[in-house]
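User: I'm putting together notes for a lab meeting next week and I want to include a structural view of one of the chains we've been expressing. I don't have a solved structure, so I'd like a prediction I can at least talk through. The sequence is below, exactly as it appears in our construct file.
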Amino acid sequence: MKQALLTISALFIGFVAMMFSLLMAIPMAIAAFITGNRIKKQLDKEFARQREAQGQTANGNTIEGEYEEVSSK
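Assistant: Thanks for the context. Below is the predicted structure for the 73-residue chain, given as structure tokens.
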């Protein structure tokens, strides 16, 4: 009888925990989706502004700087 009560209570607690996690996960997923889209739009605007400020040409993908070989000889 004691094992049956423990089993029933464990199943009930597990069910409540699963429902609570779903209750928390669904609003968080919706909020993340909305926030992610907003951040993506802000980043796109910032990249466009930076490209415009730099005045990139069609061949402007060169990174200037020094070259140093790091492989062992």
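A couple of points you could mention at the meeting. The mean pLDDT is 85. Residues 54 and 60 are 10 Å apart (CA to CA).

User: Perfect, that's what I needed.
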